[in-house]
């Protein structure tokens, strides 16, 4: 999905939201999961959800099952 005319501060909000999702689930970033969560964050942002808090909570609520189990992280 392409995003046009995104400002640096908007990229920061998206990035911090995605990072917060990974921290919440204590998940180690990988390419597949990062692609899914980043795409979802951009989609939510384009639908008008513009704050880090809102994006993070929506990502956590919508994508609980793709996070690896904490035991798998060791």
As a percent range, the share of helical residues equals 55-70%
- The span between the termini is 33 Å
Q: Which structural class do you get from the secondary structure elements?
A: mainly alpha
Total number of strands: 0
What does the average pLDDT come to?
86
Strand count, sense and barrel status of the largest sheet are: none
The amount of beta strand, in percent, is: under 5%
The string of secondary-structure elements, in order, is HHH
The helix tally amounts to 3
Query: What Rg, in angstroms, do the CA atoms define?
Result: 12 Å
Specify the overall morphology. Answer: globular
Describe the protein's topology.
Elements: H1 8-24, H2 31-46, H3 52-62
Helix pairs in contact: 1-2, 1-3, 2-3
List key phrases describing it.
74 residues, mainly alpha, 59% helix, 0% strand
Would you give an account of this structure?
The chain has a domain of 49 residues. The protein is built from three helices and no strands. The longest helix is centred in the first third of the chain and has 17 residues. The N and C termini lie far apart (33 Å).
Task: Please summarize what this structure is.
By secondary structure, this protein is mostly helical. The chain has a domain at 14-62. It has 3 helices and no strands.
């Amino acid at each position: 999905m392409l995003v046009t005319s995104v400002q640096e501060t908007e990229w920061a909000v998206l990035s911090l939201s995605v990072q917060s999702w990974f921290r919440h689930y204590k998940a180690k970033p990988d390419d597949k999961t990062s692609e899914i969560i980043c795409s979802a964050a951009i989609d939510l942002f384009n639908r008008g959800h513009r704050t880090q808090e809102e994006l993070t909570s929506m990502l956590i609520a919508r994508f609980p099952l793709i996070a690896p189990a904490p035991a798998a992280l060791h």
